[in-house]
Amino acid sequence: MRYRPGEEGVIRLNITNTTDAPLAVAIEAEMAQEIARTTTLPKQSVKVFENETGAFQIPFKAPDREYGATVRVRLMVNGKQVATAQDMFSVADNIWKVAIGADLNIMSSSGFPWMDPKAD
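Predicted structure:
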């Protein structure tokens, strides 16, 4: 997934309540880049009814700094963390800055000259 710097996006999450009572959940989220550059996203308080799954969205704006970013989400119930999740995405104004992986080099695109497919 790639966003342009400053592009608006949305985090989608499903929360399942497996109990027999409605559940009040606080959704806390942050975006991280580099080692310690974090941005806290607005907290949401939601209710998930008993034995149901709720679909929720957290809007965000992609960072202005390019390259990798991580979104982390924590679910809090009565002040206790009950679940976490994270996902990563790229930020770049040009797809080619982030689309070429480590395995896309001349050796992988032209074959491995030290291997003889006939002998294998």
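Summary: The first strand starts at residue 2 and ends at 3.
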